């Protein structure tokens, strides 16, 4: 398998891509929360009996969207102040590591161990990069591991990955 991680990977560009995606998600969610709030407080949604719950449901939705927007804003601030580390090939994995994993079938995937925004998918020069956090099952397994180590994920199916490259 050809390595997806090149020696000259620009992790700052990856961080800027993460921040840009989070800002876009934040703007979209903020707009949705405002729309939900407007629906919740609209005069047509004032309940006229105990079964008229549209306004209440819209207010719950608006609150959930506002909470998620706040989480995204905190993630943006965290990534803006994040110190990126350049890892030697034999270094132990920790926060800000970009890791190439390979499964038994030879399929490669790239993951970036970040402080927040777990599950975010980005397109990069090397392919798709998934952001994971130390709180995720894969993040927990990767912490402290090195190139050549195997990590195992147990779920419906057990999957094993080899750590092929770190930067």
Automatic annotation (TrEMBL):
SUPFAM superfamilies: FKBP-like (SSF54534). InterPro entries: GreA/GreB_C_sf. GO terms for biological process: regulation of DNA-templated transcription elongation. It comes from Desulfuromusa kysingii. Keywords: Elongation factor, Protein biosynthesis. It comes from the Bacteria. This is GreA/GreB family elongation factor. GO terms for molecular function: DNA binding; translation elongation factor activity.
